Amino acid sequence: NAGVTQTPKFQVLKTGQSMTLQCAQDMNHNSMYWYRQDPGMGLRLIYYSASEGTTDKGEVPNGYNVSRLNKREFSLRLESAAPSQTSVYFCASTWTSGGGETQYFGPGTRLLVL
Amino acid sequence: KQEVTQIPAALSVPEGENLVLNCSFTDSAIYNLQWFRQDPGKGLTSLLLIQSSQREQTSGRLNASLDKSSGRSTLYIAASQPGDSATYLCAVTVNNAGNMLTFGGGTRLMVKP
Predict the structure, then answer these.
(1) Phi-psi region of B12 (alpha: psi -120 to 50; beta: other; left: phi over 0)
(2) How do beta strands B30-38 and A19-25 pair?
(3) Smallest CA–CA separation between B10 and chain A, in Å?
């Protein structure tokens, strides 16, 4: 099992450019999450998908959109990147959203917006 | 709004020392609490998960305790090794909140040989 995979690993964007961060899991998990990690602020939830076909906002959703393409894949899109979106982005998954199980994290995507 | 705080932000100890990392949270209505390890430039690895009804969990040299009423958790690392050097994050799951995690800022641990 590859677990949770993320692409790309690194990306540099100019202000106003758009991009999509990809995430896939092969553990047959129902729930998937996108977090961002900034120095001194820990991880903050951007969006999550409790099950295929559903998405909900987290703590910091502004400037982002998500798509739960199928059970395996959950993508995060920046329509018009801003320097404030420079961060490390982590995708995570878990079996269900209501069972309190541990979450499994991908290796992260490091994004720099100039 | 749930807030999670970890103290200290950084810690340096000699190899072999026993150490305690602290985590506090403001809302005691949690579903569970997890401790994660993050190596530089890497993702997070779950170490221990404590359900709200439990008081502690152990895995090898690691022991995590939970006092929900006081909003505190500790991660005890016995006989620390240089390989334990990493950032340790605690996170709580709030009841009926889609299993969303609220994270602390982490404690950066360095164990010197």
Answers:
(1) beta
(2) unpaired
(3) 11
Give the phi and the psi of residue A85 in degrees, each rounded to 5: -95, 5
Residues ≥6 apart with Cβ < 8 Å to B5: B23, B24, B25, B104, B105
What is the per-residue pLDDT across B74-100, written as a single tens digit (0 to 9) for each? 999 999 999 999 999 999 987 655 667
Mean pLDDT by 10 residues, chain A (114 residues): 92 97 95 91 90 91 95 96 97 76 91 97
Quick one: CA dihedral A19, A25, B23, A62, positive or negative? positive
B76 and A CB contact within 8 Å? no
In angstroms, the separation between the Cα of residue B17 and the nearest Cα of chain A is 26
For B53, the token pair is 């009804």
Cβ–Cβ of B32/A43 closer than 8 Å?
no
Which residues, including other chains, have CB under 8 Å from residue B109's CB and lie 6 or more apart? B10, B11, B12, B13, B19, B21, B77, B80, B84, B85, B86, B87, B88
CB contact under 8 A, B31 and A100: yes
